[in-house]
Specification:
This protein has nine helices and seven strands, in the order E-H-E-H-E-H-E-H-H-E-H-E-H-H-H-E. By secondary structure, the protein is of the alpha/beta class. It has a single domain, classed as NAD(P)-binding Rossmann-like Domain (Rossmann fold, 3-Layer(aba) Sandwich). It has a seven-stranded parallel β-sheet, sandwiched between helices. Helix 4 packs across helix 6.
């Protein structure tokens, strides 16, 4: 259960990676608020769309898109705007946290990780900003991670991109603030999506990470969406350039 934000009803929301994992939970949470939701996803999300239609009486607009293709991402944003009206909330959620070593990792592989995990955040914001300005403002929510703050091993490129997202958030908050466009970032802890459970959530790893948290319960997708709704709504109208950590009490940024 989450708070109801009446100003989100009928608003136009665009989410990257909105058909699976945390993104799917975000899509559903905005549908439950009565928002008009569009999302891009590289993999097929037709089954998820049908499920949302049956559950909420309104289907999100699903646009198949690889966010590494900037032209395709911009076209998807334009399509969503035509369908639902000016986008006033952008959630840059799509990410790829593949593990990799330091040695043997090539420049092309490094660039590929940046194309997924950092570049779309900038160009998505670039695409929605003119419309948000005309609308009198908007909210851009960038997904980062606590990974770069706790020096997790196994994905230095991903951690670097997630650190860069915080810097990008701060910079864009200054750049877009005069147009009443707010830019904030969300830094989740280890959220146990299906992908995480399938690939990396061993019994030992789960036990070790839980011991790092102040709150003795693992995070799931539903634990992240309340923060996103708050940042999208007018309840946070004077918040920008902020990094909100949702990790059960692993990190304590000063």
């Amino acid at each position: 259960m989450h708070a109801t934000y009446h100003d989100l009803k009928d608003s136009s929301v665009f989410i990257t990676g909105g058909g699976s994992g945390i993104g799917a939970a975000i899509t559903e949470s905005f549908l439950a608020q009565g928002a008009k939701v569009a999302f891009v996803q590289r993999s097929d999300a037709s089954e998820f769309v049908a499920e949302m239609k049956a559950k909420h009486g309104a289907a999100p607009l699903y646009i198949e898109c690889d966010v590494t293709d900037v032209d395709a991402l911009k076209a998807a944003i334009a399509q969503a705007g035509d369908a639902h009206g000016t986008i006033t909330t952008l959630v840059n959620n799509a990410a790829w946290d593949n593990r990799h070593p330091v040695q043997g990792f090539t420049p092309d592989e490094w660039d590929s990780m940046m194309r997924v995990n950092l570049r779309p955040h900038f160009f998505g914001a670039q695409a929605v900003a003119p419309g948000m300005k005309e609308a009198g403002g908007g909210s851009i929510i960038n997904f980062s991670s606590i990974a770069f703050r706790i020096a997790v091993q196994g994905f230095p490129a991903y951690a670097t991109a997630k650190a860069g997202i915080v810097g990008l958030t701060n910079s864009m908050a200054r750049e877009l603030g005069p147009d009443f466009i707010r830019v904030n970032s969300v830094l989740p802890g280890w959220v146990l999506t299906k992908r995480q459970m399938d690939l990396w959530a061993t019994e030992e790893a789960l036990k070790e990470f839980l011991a790092m948290q102040c709150l003795p319960e693992h995070l799931h997708e539903k634990d992240i969406v309340g923060t996103v709704l708050f940042l999208a709504s007018n309840s946070s109208r004077m918040m920008t350039g902020q990094s909100l950590v949702v990790d059960g009490g692993v990190t304590f940024p000063g």
